[in-house]
Structures are given as C-alpha cells and as structure tokens.
TrEMBL record:
Annotated GO biological process: cell wall organization; proteolysis
Keywords per UniProt: Cell wall biogenesis/degradation, Dipeptidase, Hydrolase, Metal-binding, Metalloprotease, Protease, Zinc
Database matches in InterPro entries: A_A_dipeptidase (IPR000755), Zn_M74/Hedgehog-like (IPR009045)
Catalytic activities: D-alanyl-D-alanine + H2O = 2 D-alanine
CDD domains: D-Ala-D-Ala_dipeptidase_like
Example of a GO MF term: metal ion binding
UniProt xrefs under SUPFAM superfamilies: Hedgehog/DD-peptidase
Name of the protein in its database record: D-Ala-D-Ala dipeptidase
Organism for this UniProt entry: Reticulibacter mediterranei
Length: 366
C-alpha cells in the first residue's frame, strides 16, 4: 500500500514521466513471451478489473457513445500484454479498501490511434490557425502519439504496453455487494450463461455506485491541467507565496499522488502530460522514462483467441441491448438470454454510468 501521512500521499516529482528520445530506443521483441490478453468480463486472468471501453462507446459516460463520434476500429474488449495485466492487478491490491482501478483504454489498434491523432490535430488547427506544422504536430503528440506502422517506433498504445486508468470508490455496502459477486464468479462450475449474468450485476454495481475520485480534470482532457505534476507545481508556487491550495485543488493533487504511487509501485512508468497514462518499462516510452537501453514491446495485433473473445463479447452486448430495448415485451429463449434479461431487470440499463467523467480528446477551451 502507498505510504500515507495525515491523509497526504508522497509528492510526485516535478520531472516525473519524461520521455525524450523514446522513439530512438531500440526494440528487441519476442511477442511469444508476453501476448495480448483480455481484461474485464470473461477474462480468465483479469476478470475483476473494471473496464469501460471509452473509444468504443461502451457506456453512457463515453463521448464516443453517439454514432457521430464512433471511432473506426475501436474494440469493446480492452487487451494488454500479459505482464501489463498482472501489474494492473498488483496496483489494484495496493489501493485502500473500497477503491478500485477503472481502465479506460489499453491496446489501441492503428486505425483508432490515427482517428484520435487526426481529430486532435484538426481541432488544434482550428483553434490556432497560425500555428506552424511542426508546432502543431509537437503539441498534438503531447496528448496523442503519431500513428505509426513502423516496426522501429510504434505508438505506445499499439504495443499493448500502455494503459489509461483512474480510481473509483465504492461505499461499504456496495463494496460488500461486489465481494459477494466476486465470490460467485470464483466458482469453477459456473456455466457461461450464469457467469455473464453475474458479471452484468458486477458491472452494474460499479457503474451505478463507484464514484471516480476527483483528479482536477475529466479523463482525456486536452489541456495543461492534465499534466501529471500540474498540482505539484501549483502547490509549490502557492507555498512560496505563503498561500495554500484550496481544499478541492489539494484533493486533486492527493488523488493524483495516490494513482501515481500505486502504478509506479506496481512497475509502471508515468507520463508527464497525462495523469491517467502509464507505460510498461518494456515499451519504448516506458524504457525512456526508466532509463533503459532497449525495449521489448513492438507493435502487436490481435491473435485468433483475442478476436474470438471480442466476438463473444460483442454478441453478448448485442443480446443485452436488444433485450433492454424490448423492455417488458422481451422474451428469453435461451439460458444466456434468461440470465441477461434477469440481470437487466434487476439492475437496469447496461450502458448507464452515474459518474466517471470523460471528454472527447481535443485542445482545452481554457
């Protein structure tokens, strides 16, 4: 667990998460040793991690949930390298009781990376029409890496070695409810239909009752306040002037410290421009931050088992959304439909999120 003194976590170094020269780090890869595996629902190794596939528009908090904002190539399932998933599980165990990791993004296909990059750059161009192309690209890449299919410099998310995470908190009653659901999910004799039903209930508990800690910005906010050490710098400038942060600003500062602490203790490297983004040291960006001579994660694609997992999740989602739309007229004809319908009638809309603020990635209006 991260050390805490009088409710305050250790400071984030002002220079944390620097990645200068990361594209020049050589890659010595062996994908067979660290494959992509799924997180979240139906995952054999990381079922307990809460995921919300933001760029797919999985839940109502996603600004990409509306059809006009759909991103080509986005995935419902979040995938990451096996060692990355194991680190996420370690990080979650380091959190205080009732707190959980929420994973918004991990492995990102090339097309999604390109869509995000081009969208951000276009918005930046509209805001600053006189900005030269070199500055435009440099500013864009603070928040969205250049999409690349080059084997020597893949974008970080395309390696399966980068994750975007936040922390959410349940009250005691709903934490106990979650633990009961987890105990049912450990039953090795649970069939797929029952498992899907229990996972829908687990998701509903988190979506309805887990509140995202206050980090000072929404996820994917594209401005300077998203910088990892923004509140550390602000805190130091206020202190030097004989002043103090407001309670709200101090809360954001402390919550960033907590996230930074658990993720770095679990073996991740931070990123200076985004409080939510962390890299594995096996990636080029992570290796640069860690001062390593080479990386072992190159670009990676979904294998047959990954695609089968994604297809299964998509079919289950389609069934759930259909049954939810049909409401009282819905009829379950299979064991899977029975469990899905029961979960919907017990917990409501499977897309609804009460909290978890997120923004379309674009330059800040401030």
């Amino acid at each position: 667990m991260v050390t805490v003194e009088n409710g305050v976590y250790p400071e984030i170094p002002l220079d944390a998460g620097q990645v200068q020269g990361w594209k020049d780090i050589p890659i010595r890869e062996d994908d067979s040793l660290d494959p992509l595996i799924p997180l979240g629902p139906l995952s054999q190794e990381a079922e307990t991690l809460m995921t919300s596939s933001l760029y797919f528009g999985e839940h109502s908090n996603s600004p990409y949930a509306e059809n006009r904002n759909k991103l080509e190539g986005s995935l419902l399932t979040l995938f990451a390298r096996q060692s990355v998933v194991h680190r996420l599980l370690v990080a979650e165990q380091l959190l205080p009781s009732g707190h959980h990791l929420l994973v918004f993004d991990a492995y990102r296909p090339y097309q999604v990376q390109k869509s995000l990059h081009d969208f951000y750059q276009q918005k930046l161009r509209e805001k600053y029409p006189d900005m030269d192309n070199e500055t435009l690209e440099s500013e864009t890449q603070k928040y969205v890496s250049l999409p690349s299919m080059a084997s020597t410099r893949p974008s970080p998310h395309n390696t399966g070695g980068s994750v975007d995470v936040a922390i959410v908190k349940l009250d005691q009653a709903h934490e106990e409810e979650l633990l009961q659901i987890h105990s049912h999910l450990t039953d090795v004799h649970l069939n797929i239909a029952k498992r899907v039903g229990m996972e829908m209930r687990r998701s509903a508990t988190m979506r309805r009752h887990a509140k995202m800690l206050y980090f000072g910005t929404a996820f994917d906010h594209g401005g300077e306040k998203s910088a990892l050490a923004y509140y550390e710098s602000y805190y130091k400038s206020k202190t030097a002037a004989g002043e103090s942060l407001t309670d709200k600003d101090m809360l954001a500062c402390n919550n960033r410290r907590l996230l930074f602490g658990i993720m770095t203790q679990a073996g991740f490297q931070p990123y200076f421009a985004e409080w939510w983004h962390f890299n594995a040291p096996e990636s080029q960006a992570g290796a640069a931050t860690a001062g390593l001579a080479y990386a072992t994660f190159g670009a990676v694609g979904l294998d047959e088992s990954n695609r089968a997992h994604e297809n299964t999740r998509l079919k289950i989602r389609q069934e759930a959304l259909r049954l939810q739309r049909e409401g009282d007229l819905a009829v379950a004809r299979t064991a899977l439909q029975v469990e899905i319908l029961a979960a919907i009638r017990a917990t409501g809309d499977p897309k609804l999120v009460e909290d978890w603020p997120a923004e379309i990635i674009a330059p800040s209006e401030a």
